[in-house]
C-alpha cells in the first residue's frame, strides 16, 4: 500500500515535470555565413565602421520557446559577432571594427563617414511539435563623422523550420539562419541608404 | 683640430636630433590601429581600439570550418542527408529524478540541481528568456516606415526565412552616441530595480 502511494507520487512528479526536463540543449551556431549570403549581398565601395554594444559578445538566451520544450541555451553573442563582422566585410569595401566607444575625433582622424552601432533588442523562440521558429531582433543606429545620428532602425531575422530537433545540427543551423537573416537585412538596408543618398542630407 | 671637430659633432648629436629643430608637433593618436583576422574565415580586417584596451572580442572562440547549408532545414531532408560537421548540442541530461526527489522531499541537496529546471519553466511561460524584458518594448516602440523588407521563401523548400528592417520614427538628429549609451544605462537601472 505504502509502495503504491510512493509510486503514484513519483508518476505525478514525472507528469508534472514533463519530458522537457529530460534533456538540455546547449546551442552554439556554426557562427559563419552560408554561401547564399555571398550570392545575395554584393560589396559596396564604402568605408564604414562598426561599433558593437558591449553586451553583445556575452549575450545568451535561455528561452526554451514552449512549455513542454527541453531547456535550451542559445549562445547568441558568440555566434552573432563573427557573423556580423563577416557580413560587413562582405558588404563594404573598407570595413573597420571599433572596439572602444568611438569619439568624434577618432572618426574625423580616420575619415570614417559612417559609424554603425548595433545593440540587441529581443530573441524569440517558438518550439512546437512540428518545428521551431527562432528570431533575433536588433536596433541599429547610424552616425556620421561628427556623431550626429543619421538613422535608427530595428531589424528582425527569423528562421522557421520543421523537424529541427530531429536532425543532427538542426537547431544550430536554424539559429544560424536567423542570425544570418538579421545581418543580411542590416547590410542591405545600409547599402540601400548609401546608394540612394538617404543619409546624404545629414552628411557634413 | 680633428679632435675638436669630433667633440663638437658629439656635442651637437647629444643635444638632440637635428630634425627636431622645427616647431612642428606630431601628436600621437590615442587609438591603436591593427589588423585582426576573422576568427572563422581568417579574412583580415582593420580594427581600432584604445592603447590600454587588451580585451579580445573573440576570446575563447573555437574555429568551426563549416558553412551551413540551409537545405538541411527542409522538412523533407532527413538527418544526415546534408553533411554537417558543425557544432551539435551536448545533450546534458537533467535528471528527471531530481524533480521526483524534490516532490518526495528525500534530499534537500538535489534542490540546487532541480531549481534551474523550475526557473526555466517559469521563465518560459512568458515566452521570453534573458531578452524577454526588451521584447514588449520592441513591439510598442516600433513605428515608422518599412524601408527594406526581404521575405525569403525559397521556391520548393519547406522552410521560411524572414528578415525585416523597420525605420524608427522620430527625429534622429537629436541623439548622439552618448545619448544612446545613457539610454542603455537608464534601461539597465530600470530592469535591475
Give keywords.
heterodimer, A: 204 residues, alpha/beta, Rossmann fold, 5-stranded mixed beta sheet, two-stranded parallel sheet, 7 strands, 34% helix, 31% strand, elongated, B: 193 residues, alpha+beta, 3 domains, two-stranded antiparallel ribbon, 5 helices, 5 strands, 33% helix, 17% strand, extended
Please tell me about this protein's structure:
The complex is a heterodimer of chains A (204) and B (193). With 204 residues, chain A is of the alpha/beta class. Chain A has a single domain (23-202), classed as 3-Layer(aba) Sandwich (Rossmann fold), CATH 3.40.50. Helices cover 34% and strands 31% of the residues of chain A. In chain A, the strands form two sheets. A five-stranded mixed sheet of chain A has the order 4-2-5-6-7. In chain A, strands 1-3 form a two-stranded parallel ribbon. The model of chain A is unreliable at 15-21 (pLDDT under 50). Chain B is of the alpha+beta class and 193 residues long. Chain B has three domains: 33-50 and 58-88, no CATH class; 91-127, no CATH class; 131-193, no CATH class. Chain B has five helices and five strands. Chain B has helices at residues 2-15, 96-104, 111-124, 132-141, 177-192, and strands at 31-37, 44-50, 92-93, 146-152, 159-167.
Poorly predicted regions of chain B are 12-22, 91-148
Number of domains of chain A: 1
Mean pLDDT of chain A: 85
Note the run of SSEs of chain B as H and E: HEEEHHHEEH
Biggest beta sheet summary of chain B: 2 strands, antiparallel
CATH classification class of chain A: Alpha Beta
Q: Mind summarizing the main beta sheet of chain A? A: 5 strands, mixed
Global Rg of chain B: 30 Å
Can you tell me the CATH superfamily of chain A?
Answer: ABC-type transport auxiliary lipoprotein component
Helix content of chain A: 25-40%
Overall strand count of chain B: 5
Radius of gyration of chain A: 22 Å
List SSEs of chain A in N-to-C order: HEHEEHEHEEEH
Strand content of chain B: 15-25%
Strand order of the largest sheet of chain B: 1-2
CATH architecture of chain A: 3-Layer(aba) Sandwich
Percentage of residues in DSSP E strands of chain A:
25-35%
Total DSSP E strands of chain A: 7
Amino acid at each position: 500500500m505504502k509502495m503504491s502511494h510512493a509510486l503514484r507520487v513519483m508518476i505525478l512528479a514525472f507528469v508534472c515535470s514533463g519530458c522537457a526536463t529530460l534533456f538540455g540543449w546547449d546551442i552554439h551556431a556554426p557562427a559563419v555565413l552560408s554561401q547564399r549570403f555571398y550570392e545575395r549581398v554584393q560589396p559596396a565601395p564604402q568605408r564604414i565602421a562598426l561599433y558593437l554594444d558591449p553586451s553583445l559578445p556575452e549575450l545568451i538566451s535561455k528561452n526554451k520557446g514552449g512549455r513542454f520544450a527541453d531547456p535550451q541555451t542559445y549562445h547568441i553573442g558568440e555566434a552573432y559577432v563573427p557573423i556580423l563582422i563577416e557580413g560587413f566585410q562582405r558588404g563594404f569595401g573598407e570595413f573597420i571594427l571599433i572596439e572602444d566607444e568611438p569619439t568624434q575625433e577618432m572618426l574625423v582622424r580616420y575619415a570614417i563617414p559612417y559609424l554603425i552601432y548595433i545593440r540587441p533588442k529581443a530573441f524569440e523562440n517558438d518550439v512546437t511539435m512540428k518545428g521551431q521558429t527562432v528570431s533575433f531582433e536588433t536596433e541599429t543606429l547610424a552616425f556620421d563623422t561628427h556623431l550626429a545620428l543619421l538613422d535608427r532602425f530595428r531589424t528582425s531575422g527569423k528562421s522557421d523550420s520543421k523537424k529541427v530537433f530531429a536532425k543532427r545540427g538542426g537547431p544550430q543551423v536554424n539559429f544560424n539562419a536567423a542570425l544570418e537573416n538579421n545581418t543580411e537585412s542590416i547590410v542591405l538596408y545600409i547599402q540601400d541608404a548609401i546608394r540612394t543618398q538617404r543619409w546624404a542630407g545629414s552628411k557634413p | 683640430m680633428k679632435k675638436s671637430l669630433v667633440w663638437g659633432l658629439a656635442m651637437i648629436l647629444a643635444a638632440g636630433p637635428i630634425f627636431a629643430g622645427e616647431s612642428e608637433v606630431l601628436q600621437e593618436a590615442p587609438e591603436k590601429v591593427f589588423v585582426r583576422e576573422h576568427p572563422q574565415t581568417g579574412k583580415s580586417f582593420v580594427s581600432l581600439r584604445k592603447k590600454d584596451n587588451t580585451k579580445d572580442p573573440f576570446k575563447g572562440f573555437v574555429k568551426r570550418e563549416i558553412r551551413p547549408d540551409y537545405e538541411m532545414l527542409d522538412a523533407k531532408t532527413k538527418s544526415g542527408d546534408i553533411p554537417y560537421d558543425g557544432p551539435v548540442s551536448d545533450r546534458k541530461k537533467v535528471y528527471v529524478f531530481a524533480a521526483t526527489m524534490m516532490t518526495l522531499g528525500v534530499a534537500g541537496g538535489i534542490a540546487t540541481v532541480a531549481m534551474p529546471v523550475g526557473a526555466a519553466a517559469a521563465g518560459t511561460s512568458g515566452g521570453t528568456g534573458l531578452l524577454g524584458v526588451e521584447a514588449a518594448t520592441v513591439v510598442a516602440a516600433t513605428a515608422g516606415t518599412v524601408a527594406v523588407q526581404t521575405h525569403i521563401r525559397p521556391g520548393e523548400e519547406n522552410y521560411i526565412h524572414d528578415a525585416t528592417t523597420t525605420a524608427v520614427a522620430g527625429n534622429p538628429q537629436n541623439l548622439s552616441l552618448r545619448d544612446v549609451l545613457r539610454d542603455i544605462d537608464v534601461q539597465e537601472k530600470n530592469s535591475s530595480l
